[in-house]
Structure formats: C-alpha cells, structure tokens
Write a structure and sequence with these properties.
90 residues, alpha+beta, two-stranded antiparallel sheet, 2 strands, 30% helix, 13% strand, elongated, binds zinc ion
C-alpha cells in the first residue's frame, strides 16, 4: 500500500522538472488563507501569503502596503477613514 500522504490532498502537488529532464511530483504544504479588509471584507492586495517560518525571514515592507492601515484596511476603506477623520477634526 502507498503511504496516505500521496493519496490525500492535504499536501499540494507540484510538478517539478529534475536536472536530468524527468518530471516528478513534489508534495508541498499549502499556502495559508488570504487576508481580508477588516471593514468591508474585500481581499487585501499586496499581502504576502506565506507560512510563518518564511514570513519571519521576509522584510516587513514586502508583507503589507506601506501606508496607514496597511494590511488592515483596503485602499477604499483607508481613503474613506482618512477623509472622515479630517472632517471630524475640522
Ligand atoms: Zn475595505
């Protein structure tokens, strides 16, 4: 019997070409979930989807947009939030 690792879909299948020209099936861990805006629930752009051990070695500037509320709110909600706060202060 084959190991259950190859039968189950827990691991993603990636076709890789070896230096010898053969194609092998590599079993790779799946990506974590996508990130969503905390206000409207829209998918956040420019966010890295990596496993924690890879996240630790990637620079912060590559993981989320470099702006206020980057990685928390989408661009539309950020714009709205900033305009609202400016109106409140005026
Ligand atoms: Zn939003």
């Amino acid at each position: 019997m084959r190991p259950s690792k190859q039968k189950s879909r827990t691991l993603r299948r990636v076709f890789k070409k070896t230096p010898g020209g053969r194609t092998i099936v590599a079993y790779v861990k799946r990506k974590p979930k996508k990130l969503y805006c905390s206000n409207c629930g829209k998918e956040l752009m420019g966010m890295k989807q990596l496993r924690p051990y890879k996240m630790a070695s990637t620079p912060k500037t590559e993981k989320r947009p470099e702006r206020p509320y980057g990685g928390v709110l989408c661009s539309r909600c950020t714009r709205r939030r900033i305009i609202e706060s400016a109106r409140m202060n005026a």
